[in-house]
Design a protein that fits this description.
Blueprint: E1 29-33, H1 36-39, H2 54-58, H3 71-84, E2 89-93, H4 96-99, H5 108-123, E3 127-131, H6 151-166, E4 172-177, H7 179-187, H8 200-224, E5 229-235, H9 244-251, H10 262-275, H11 282-294, H12 298-301, H13 303-311, E6 320-325, E7 339-341, E8 344-346, H14 361-369, E9 376-382, E10 386-389, E11 392-394, H15 402-418, E12 423-429, E13 442-443, E14 449-450, E15 456-457, H16 467-479
Parallel strand pairs: 1-2, 1-12, 2-3, 3-4, 4-5, 5-6, 6-9, 9-12
Antiparallel strand pairs: 7-8, 10-11, 10-13, 14-15
């Protein structure tokens, strides 16, 4: 049986001793972000719920997810750590494969368990932000689910099930995590099942269905919960067609754009986007030209989402703008095989996550570029990766650690606020080292995890730095008006 609890009022911040000018807007939230498949454990094994990664795990194409970090059973321990950071927000996902392990069969005990997790959030003063699709769906829907014309309607049914059960505990929702990465990873880069490479028409078809699914989900949530806050979040990418174009499509109805004018509208928005970013290098310029060439008939390419926008009851299907920020420059991710990397050489055709170019100052730039009049903006993910292989931690080749990254990234948040960006939340990725889509080698956690000696969650991060203490001190300082807490040690 599902029983609700009322979210607590945010506690007042104590005085810092002497008056300081406010740095943060009223209601600004600090949190950490997670995803169910990456932390819960208990997927894709014998007798366990299976998602769209099950085939890759079973044939050995990726490392099995296994127990992950056992969040499903140890969620209270993890949430205690979130609260100890001084956070007042926590992002998690409800996993479709766990709740509906076979078509039409709903595991009510799983829904009750998610309700208990949300109750535990509220008991610790954490506002939950629930993601309804974080890169995974049940295996019975197939690896090519997002190419199906039925996908938006099926997703809307899933959203109705979850929102109907949990709306008394959650008022903030992400419909689909990183629509751009789902489509690119599956059909352009071959990183996600089904693993196709340069299947550009399929990528755009997936874009269309994913955006239409968001529109349908927005309608469902607001019908059930009119005061909800609903968004989707792209990962920041410099090439317009790989990022901001998708948001502009969702904004097109409110902008009053007729269907036959959608091409001119996107061309204008593309020019505005590139004017907000630094001048491209030659490789980046080539990628931008390729992106523009592929979108030659947008009214036809995006017919499904444009139809959904046209017939829906809402002129605007975003309540806030959600973005993720890692390394947004597309050309940075291209690198010849055999390049030096942390722990040896990489023979992958692109840059490893732990070699991503670090540019915290760019966070403020992308916040400004994504600002939409009348809407707040949330930084839904931001983090830095290092590598751990067979229990051995390798430092980043560029010398960055998580302490410095946190300070400089939060300094960029302050810069964005100072420049007038209506930024309302910052979620760091992630609370603990977790399963990073096929491997446990990439580590993003504020808390490290020792997987070789009993799945121990560490007080330090994987590099031995006090990332938790740093994040806690920054949160406390900024809430009290002390800007100096983001100053990086030199």
């Amino acid at each position: 049986m599902l029983t609700g609890v009322s979210p607590p009022e945010r506690a007042a911040v104590p005085s810092a001793g002497r008056a300081r000018a406010a740095v943060l807007p009223e209601g600004f939230r600090f949190g950490v972000a997670t995803a169910g498949f990456q932390v819960e454990g208990g997927f894709n094994g014998p007798g366990e719920p299976a998602n769209n990664w099950v085939r890759w795990e079973r044939v050995g194409r990726v490392e099995p997810s296994g127990i992950a970090v056992d969040f499903w059973n140890r969620y209270e321990e993890h949430l205690d750590r979130v609260a100890a950071l001084g956070c007042d927000a926590f992002r998690l996902s409800v996993e479709w494969a766990r709740v509906e392990p076979s078509p039409g069969v709903v595991d009510t005990e799983a829904l009750d368990h998610y309700a208990a997790v949300l109750d535990a959030c509220h008991q610790r003063g954490l506002e939950p932000l629930v993601t309804l699709h974080h890169f995974t769906q049940p295996a019975w829907l197939g690896e090519d689910f997002w190419l199906s014309g039925d996908a938006p309607a099926q997703f809307a049914g899933w959203v109705e099930l979850v929102a109907g059960a949990l709306a008394d505990r959650c008022r903030q929702w992400v419909t689909l995590n990183e629509v751009n990465v789902v489509a690119m990873g599956s059909y352009l880069l071959g990183m996600f099942p089904p693993g196709r490479f340069l299947a550009v028409p399929d990528m755009f078809r997936a874009y269309d269905n994913l955006l239409a699914a968001h529109v349908r989900a927005y309608e469902v949530i607001h019908r059930l919960q009119p005061q909800a806050t609903v968004t989707t979040n792209n990962t920041s990418a410099s090439v317009y067609e790989l990022d901001r174009m998708l948001i502009d499509l969702l904004l097109s109805r409110q902008a009053g754009v007729a269907r036959h004018d959608i091409g001119a509208y996107l061309a204008d928005r593309r020019a505005t986007w590139y004017a907000s970013l630094p001048a491209p290098d030659p490789v980046e310029q080539m990628l931008r030209r390729l992106g523009r060439w592929r979108v030659d008939a947008p009214a036809d390419i995006f017919a499904t989402v444009l139809d959904a926008l046209c017939v829906g009851p809402h002129e605007l299907t975003l309540d806030v703008i959600g973005i993720d920020y890692y390394d947004p420059v597309a050309s940075h991710h291209l690198r010849l095989p055999g390049a030096r990397t942390a722990g040896g050489r990489s023979w992958a055709p692109g840059r490893e996550l732990w070699d991503d170019v670090v540019d915290p100052a760019g966070l403020a730039r992308y916040c400004r570029a994504n600002t939409v009049e009348g809407l707040d903006l949330w930084m839904v993910e931001n983090g830095v990766c290092n590598r751990v292989r067979r229990g051995r931690c390798y430092p980043r080749l560029d010398g960055w650690d998580r302490v410095r990254y946190l300070r400089e990234s939060l300094a960029s948040v302050v810069e964005a606020l100072d420049s007038g960006v209506p930024l309302g939340a910052y979620y760091h990725w992630s609370l603990v080292d977790n399963y990073e889509w096929g491997s446990y080698e990439p580590r993003f956690g504020i808390h490290g995890v020792d997987r070789e000696r009993g799945l121990r969650v560490l007080d330090t991060d994987a590099m031995g730095s006090d990332a938790a203490g740093t994040y806690r001190a920054i949160i406390e300082g900024l809430r009290s008006g002390d800007r100096s807490v983001t100053a990086a040690a030199r």
